[in-house]
Amino acid sequence: MKSQSPEALVLVDGYNVIGAWNDLKETRDRHGLEMARYELIEILINYASHNFYSTKVIFDSQYQQTPSQEEQHTPFLSVYYTAFSETADTYIEKACASFRHSYTIPNRVIVVTSDQAQRHTVVGYGAEWMSSLKLQSAVTAANRQSHDYRKTRQPKRGRQLLNSLDPTVQQRLRQLRLGQ
C-alpha cells in the first residue's frame, strides 16, 4: 500500500497543455475554452489519483478583472485561477521559489509546461520539468496500465448463470443444494 503523503506535487500550466494536446485544441476550437479546461481537469483527476500525485492545474486570469480562486476537485487535484495581471508562469515560479526556501518541501515538485524559459527557471529552483507532450504520454501509459490491471483482476467465468453470481451467493446455493 502507498504512503499517506503524496509522492509528488505536480504543477500544471493548464493553457500550455491545452495548446499542446491535439485533442484538447480541437475541443477548445469546437466547444470553447471552458470545455477544454473541463476535459483537462477530468483527465488529470484520473492521472493524479493513479500516480498518487498532489496535482494543481494553474490557469491564467490575467485579462479578467477577477481575484485568484482555488477549487479543490478531489483530494489529489485542485485548480487555481490566477488573479488579474498574474500569469500561470509567475504563480508557478513563486511556488517553486517558496518550496526552495521552505521546511515543508514536498518530496518532488514536477512542473508541466512546454515553455522553455519556464523550464530553465523551475529547474533552477530544484523542480523537475515535464513537457506537455510528455505528460500526454504519461497519461496514456497510466490509463493503459490501469485498464490492464482491471482486466487481469476480473475472474474468468464460464457461461453458466451460477458463474455470474456473487461468490457468497454461490456458496449459499451450494449449501442449499446439499441440504445444509
Oligomeric state: single chain
Which secondary-structure class do the elements indicate? alpha/beta
The total strand number stands at 6
Gross morphology is elongated
- Low-confidence segments, ≥5 residues, pLDDT <50? none
Query: How many distinct folded domains?
Result: 1
Range of strand content: 15-25%
Secondary-structure element order, N to C: EHHHEEEHEHEHH
Helix content: 40-55%
Q: Describe the biggest sheet?
A: 6 strands, mixed
Distance between the termini: 39 Å
**Count of separate DSSP helical elements:** 7
Report the average pLDDT across residues. Answer: 85
Strand order of the largest sheet: 3-4-2-1-5-6
Word description of this protein:
The protein contains seven helices and six strands; from the N terminus they run βαααβββαβαβαα. The protein is an alpha/beta fold. The protein has one domain (8-177). Strands 3-4-2-1-5-6 form a six-stranded mixed β-sheet, with helices on both faces. α5 (116-124) links the parallel β5 (109-112) and β6 (128-130). The longest helix has 22 residues, at 132-153. It is elongated, with a radius of gyration of 22 Å. The mean pLDDT is 85.
